[in-house]
Design goal:
Blueprint lengths: L1 H5 L18 E2 L6 E2 L1 H4 L5 H39 L7 H4 L1 H13 L2 H24 L6 H37 L1
Antiparallel strand pairs: 1-2
Helix pairs in contact: 3-5, 3-6, 3-7, 5-6, 6-7
The structure holds zinc ion (2 copies).
C-alpha cells in the first residue's frame, strides 16, 4: 500500500521541512510535500505548530472551568453562611489557590497550574471530608464526593494540556533550529 502510494509522487519530490528526505505524502492542511516522519502527525512542521497552538486555548478553557467549579460553589455557599451571621470558615482562603490556578490556566495555558489546581482541590476536599466525618455530619460527605468529580476530571485535562504544551514546545524548537 505504501509503495503504491509513493508512486503517485514524482520520485524527486522532497519533504518541505526535511529537504534531505523523500516526500511520502502531502500535508493535510497546506498541501506541501511531507516525508514519513512528518506523516506521523498528518501535517508539515509549520502546520503542526499552528494546529497545536490553536488547540491550546480550548483545552485550557475546559480545564479552567473544571478547576473553578468547586471553589465557585464553595465561595457562594460560604457567602450565604456568613450572611446568616455565622463565622467565616478557615478553609475559605485556601480555596483561593485552585481558583487562582484556574485563572492561570485560562490566561497562560499553564499545565503546572492545572496540576496544582486539581491536586489542591482534591486535598482540600479530603480535608473537608475528614472534618465532616469527625463532626458527625457523614451525610454531607455526598456533597464533597460530588464536588470532587470536577477536579478529578481536571486531572485528566491537566495531562492532556501538558502533552499539548510539550508538543508545541517541541515544534517551536524544531522551527527555531530549522
Ligand atoms: Zn502544512
Ligand atoms: Zn519531513
Amino acid at each position: 500500500m505504501a509503495a503504491d502510494f509513493s508512486d503517485w509522487f514524482d520520485s524527486n519530490a522532497r519533504c518541505a521541512t526535511h529537504p534531505h528526505l523523500e516526500a511520502a505524502s502531502t500535508c493535510a492542511r497546506c498541501g506541501s510535500f511531507c516525508c514519513e516522519a512528518c506523516l506521523t502527525q498528518a501535517w508539515c512542521e509549520p502546520c503542526a505548530l499552528v494546529v497545536m497552538r490553536a488547540h491550546l486555548p480550548g483545552t485550557a478553557r475546559s480545564v479552567a472551568w473544571k478547576l473553578a467549579l468547586a471553589p465557585a460553589f464553595l465561595l457562594v455557599s460560604t457567602a450565604l453562611w456568613v450572611s446568616r451571621g455565622r463565622e467565616l470558615p478557615t478553609q475559605w482562603l485556601a480555596w483561593l489557590v485552585p481558583m487562582g490556578c484556574a485563572l492561570l490556566v485560562l490566561r497562560r495555558h499553564s499545565p503546572a497550574a492545572a496540576w496544582v489546581g486539581a491536586v489542591s482541590s482534591l486535598l482540600l476536599l479530603g480535608w473537608q471530608a475528614l472534618s465532616l466525618f469527625s463532626g458527625g455530619a457523614e451525610l454531607r460527605l455526598l456533597d464533597v464526593g460530588l464536588l470532587a468529580i470536577a477536579p478529578v476530571l481536571a486531572l485528566d485535562g491537566a495531562a492532556r494540556l501538558g502533552r499539548l504544551f510539550a508538543s508545541v514546545r517541541v515544534h517551536e524548537a524544531i522551527r527555531r533550529a530549522g
